[in-house]
Amino acid sequence: MDVRRRPSKALRPAPKEPSSAPEPTGAKASDALPLPLYFTNALFFTLFFSVAYYLLLRWRDKIRNSVPLHVVTFSELAAILSLIASFIYLLGFFGIDFVQSFIARASNEAWDLVDEEEGEDHRHRLMACSPSIPDHIIPAVSSAEDEEIVDLVVKGTIPSYALEEQLGDCKRAVRIRREALQRITRRSLQGLPLDGFDYGSILKQCCEMPVGYVQIPVGIAGPLLLDSFEYIVPMATTEGCIVASTNRGFKGIYASGGATSTILRDGMTRAPVVRFPSASRACHLKFFLDNPSNFQTLADEFNKSSNFARLQSVQCSIAGKNLYMRFSCTTGDAMGMNMVSKGVENVLAYLRNEYPDMDIISISGNFCSDKKPAAINWIEGRGKSAVCEAVIKEEVLKKVFRTSVATLVELNMLKNLAGSAVAGALGGFNAHASNIVSAIFIATGQDPAQNVESSHCITMMEAVNDGKDLHISVTMPSIEVGTIGGGTQLASQSACLDLLGVKGASKELPGANSRLLAKIVAGSVLAGELSLMAAIASGQLVQSHMKYNRSTKDVSKVGS
Fold first, then answer.
1. Which of 165, 367, 408, 473 would bridge 324 by S-S if both were Cys, CB 3.0 to 4.6 A apart?
2. Is residue 113, in this structure, part of any structural domain at all?
3. pTM for the full predicted model
4. How large is the average pLDDT for residues 41-50?
5. 61 belongs to the catalytic site
6. Residue 118 annotated as catalytic
7. Looking at 152, 175, 202, which one is the last position of a domain?
8. Catalytic: which of 239, 345, 389, 462?
């Protein structure tokens, strides 16, 4: 596209009538070349290197003969001009992305010169050249200027990912990207909301190339009586019965005097993998890391990149010539993946000086283990390791849950323990911990993918007080949560954290808010386990889901 300043209206040529022949969707770099592309490339390659070699020989002779370099002959001047011309061609041809960024910026200047009348004419020309799309799929953009930008995005002249940076208006960039996407795919995004969201809050932080946002309803359950404090728990889910069932569990726990919780461990992990020429060299580094006298040196290197990251331990595992090092550290109120990764990079840089034959393969060697079910997380823990328990009274079981102690104990043994063992479960000795974890994670801005290990849970039930009451507990070794960073800073998620009283970083005790959030997650899972197991024991599960998780409404009409 020509991005030079356009002539005044009086000098502009009359617009051409649209041709019936299909027009190309984008310009190629070779379109402006008078010769075949391969011939032109060969010509400029040869010209560039030949004149460069010629000039080097001439300057060498001048230096030997003490002739000033600035004194040039006609042939040398022609060679210099040829060198510059060939360099510009090669830069333009092989640096398309670089050149296009300047084209796009120049286009922005040109757009400012388009008056309203010409912009409307150009819009009609664009529509004539665009694919045939039903009218209801193409909502009008705000101006003729935006129409031209949409066309440039469709043609690929402006990269879609660069709109925010080039326009300086995040919402306008989303609207243009959205319109371009509809024209390219010929699919409507009418049901995907655009307005009502602060797109600037996610720029370079939460999501790239946004075209809207998905609405997930947030319900509340509670109060949860946990450690003598009451909490109203927000849960974002599209599955009926989840909030209602958890709320019933809260009711039973409250009526029985509440639940108690304990944080067993608090440490985020990252495990790089390095390789040595031999297994003996890998073992040498393992012995170095295992030596307690070297820990403080490692901690000093690890801790220097953060005010909150404090190295706790390093656990090593050998696989042939490869060494896996699992670093664990506190991360304050952040979930801490970036924090621990920076600390690991510091230690690796230090170790490389001590072990020059060490080859760093990856900052993460899956010994961490992040977003994957792994025995290391189930056994050693990751993030917050929590246990939560409650004693449910016999009369509460009968009145609220319509079941008995003996029935629940037997069901838990056969379903959650024996049944999960038969299935070969890893960390899945529970009824539906992931339902509650996912709902709270989405509502509070946690990483939903970390539900994989955060839902590791074993639910235990046994009769107490001469068999009259039920002791129920959930042990969750790897709850990965934070109250600062990532999605927690978004307005909706921040409001849910504020509802729980854990918004932001704790000023009194670093890490206190994230540990409390982990306790609330464990307490909510306890309630969810109690209620679902009771529903299964009393035969209410299917009936409840038919009532609250089946819709007779035609949602396709609602969405339109």
1. 367
2. no
3. 0.74
4. 81
5. no
6. no
7. 202
8. 239
